[in-house]
Design goal:
The protein is mainly alpha-helical and about 150 residues long. It is about 80% helix and about 0% strand. The chain has two domains: about 90 residues, no CATH class; about 50 residues. Bound molecules: zinc ion. The site of zinc ion (ZN) has 7 residues, from helix 4 and helix 5. This is Glycine zipper-like domain-containing protein.
């Protein structure tokens, strides 16, 4: 764990901003923390956690070429979707964005039916969606289910 953190800090010091952006270091370190805390109960998390170190080595060995950065993106995506599917861990604001779009479509429906005024329905649906999404986000955060 410490070693991985050091490796990430080392990556933090590389000069190329463009590369750094693609490395998504903040996201990576959040993922590492989660994987570490889950690795005792989940084999796949353990596997991803072990994979991270190799993976960073490969990035460095390849001198952060386009190809290795693409692999990195894929790797992060794989880890993120595992956490989401298996452990219900989502990124910040995840439910907010989902319920926002649900709210807007509900708003359109209500606007057309109940209020007979679509311009009134949309903001009502939107604010309801935001409130519900924010509530679930806050709840997930409390339960440690947010990255
Ligand atoms: Zn897992």
């Amino acid at each position: 764990m410490e070693k991985l953190k050091e490796m990430l800090e080392e990556l933090e010091s590389i000069g190329d901003e463009n590369v750094k952006k693609k490395l998504q270091l903040k996201q990576s370190s959040k993922l590492i923390v989660k994987l570490d805390s889950l690795s005792e109960e989940c084999e796949e998390c353990q596997h991803h956690f072990d994979g991270f170190e190799d993976h960073i080595h490969q990035l460095k060995a390849g001198d952060f070429n386009e190809d290795s950065l693409k692999k990195h993106k894929k790797f992060l995506y794989k880890v993120t979707s595992h956490l989401q599917k298996k452990h219900k861990i989502v990124s910040e604001g995840y439910y907010m964005s989902i319920f926002m779009s649900i709210g807007i479509s509900m708003g359109v429906v209500f606007g057309l039916t109940i209020f007979d005024n679509i311009a009134l329905g949309i903001p009502i649906g939107l604010s309801m969606g935001l409130a519900i999404g924010a509530g679930i986000d806050a709840d997930s955060k409390k339960k440690g289910l947010v990255l």
